[in-house]
Amino acid sequence: MAANSYTAVVEKEGDGYVALCPELDVASQGATVEETMANLKEAVELFLECADPGELQRRLHTEVFVTRFEATHG
Predict the structure, then answer these.
(1) Domain range spanning residue 47?
(2) Element (H or E) spanning 74, and its range?
(3) Stretches in the chain below the pLDDT threshold 70
(4) Which of 2, 36, 51, 56 could form a disulfide with 17 if both were Cys (CB 3.0 to 4.6 A apart)?
């Protein structure tokens, strides 16, 4: 089995957390960060197992950048 590295963006939402894998547009949620990450990993692995090559090619974003910036407001 081939292993690839993916990005996870985790955000607090209400009493839990949501996570997004921007490379594949796959999301998941959980009660803790650890649970959310485990759920996201499972969701990504299921997607990779079930997706046909055409769908994988359409959804795969190979250049994902996560950064911060400042914005002003009045």
Answers:
(1) 9-59
(2) none
(3) none
(4) 36
